[in-house]
Design a protein that fits this description.
The chain has 13 helices and seven strands. The chain has about 325 residues and is α/β, with parallel strands linked by helices. Strand 5, helix 10 and strand 6 form a beta-alpha-beta unit. Bound molecules: zinc ion.
Length: about 325
């Protein structure tokens, strides 16, 4: 998939840093090895010197070149032997690479390294997304069911276990066009599960746009009045998955009503997935937004109901 230019630039920086780190690590190992066995320093200096003399040897004919090669080979053999005798690995004084395919350049045969570059791009795309910047700590792994009460006929914990499993399964078997509506009061984990989904999908190489409802509407409104380039808002319509966090927390107006309609409707028609979470009840949704879009959402999105009492409050109390 294609990423924004800033993602590629970020990854170039990652490889540059890695190469510098490899050089710095090697320099440290050199100091250690030379302190243990000073002869190693002499050998490496000689080898460097011989390397630079190869060109001038060419002028002196084959025998000179052969002699130089033989000297280099014998010094290399001595170096290896000394390293092993002193308890080092025989490649201790070579550069060590994280990726044996591209030698930490990110490129292999003129193309992105399949072994490592794709993963780096995914990580970078996540780190640079607004979600990565603000909510990166919220994953499925740290979604703690123990905060939900385990009492009553259908306990909040049972409900939330079902929601958690549903979301994990949603990611594992991601199908384009499948959409979710998470409904429930404040502090019940809707944002946590939404960002956990984003996290997981991005890891799978799926393009996710995460936005809070106020930001979504503000940006669309700016564009409408020519105060913002529409290209930046293209992601609301074009991304494979759009997550709208906290629908209903924006200042509602006729603009927000029609903007929600246009985003949701356009995404449905082009078979793209949308995840919306909201504190509003079904009745509130119908009252606040366009009837037609609310009934389309309720008719085609999977609806997850969240229950329990404010988890954030409990977490705070537990932390003292
Ligand atoms: Zn690589």
């Amino acid at each position: 998939m294609a990423y924004k230019r800033e993602v590629y630039e970020y990854v170039e920086g990652v490889y540059r840093d890695r190469q510098e780190q490899n050089e710095a690590d090697l320099e440290k190992r050199r100091q250690t090895a030379y302190a243990t066995c000073p002869r190693l320093k002499e050998i490496e200096e000689k080898l460097a010197d011989m390397g630079s003399r190869i060109a001038s040897c060419v002028a002196h004919g084959m025998s000179a070149i052969k002699k130089l090669h033989a000297d280099i080979e014998s010094l290399r053999a001595e170096k290896k032997k000394l390293l092993l005798e002193n308890g080092f690995a025989d490649d201790y004084l070579d550069l060590q690479y994280k990726c044996p395919v591209c030698f930490d350049t990110g490129m292999n045969g003129g193309r992105l390294c399949r072994k490592c570059a794709e993963g780096e791009l995914k990580k970078a795309a996540f780190a640079l997304s607004s979600l990565g910047k603000t909510l990166s700590g919220q994953t499925f792994d740290n979604f703690d069911l123990s905060y939900y009460a385990d009492e009553g006929e259908i306990s909040p914990r049972t409900v939330m276990k079902h929601n958690l499993d549903y979301c994990i399964n949603y990611c594992n078997n991601f199908t384009h066009g499948d959409s979710l509506l998470m409904v429930g009061g404040t502090g019940l984990g809707k944002t946590h599960l939404s960002s956990a989904i984003a996290h997981r999908l991005i890891e799978q190489g799926i393009e996710v746009c995460y936005v809070t409802a106020p930001e979504l509407f503000t940006r669309l409104e700016k564009e409408k009045f020519g105060r913002m380039d529409g290209e930046e808002n293209e992601e609301f319509f074009a991304s494979e998955v759009l997550i709208i966090d906290d629908l209903g927390s924006e200042m509602t107006s006729s603009f927000t009503v029609s903007a929600l309609f246009s985003v949701v409707n356009s995404r449905m028609n082009s078979g793209k997935s949308t995840i919306i979470n909201t504190n509003l009840s079904q009745a509130d949704l119908e009252e606040t937004y366009n009837d037609k879009i609310v009934s389309r959402i309720l008719g085609t999105y999977k609806v997850l109901f969240f229950s329990g009492s404010d988890v954030r409050l409990k977490k705070k109390m537990k932390q003292g």
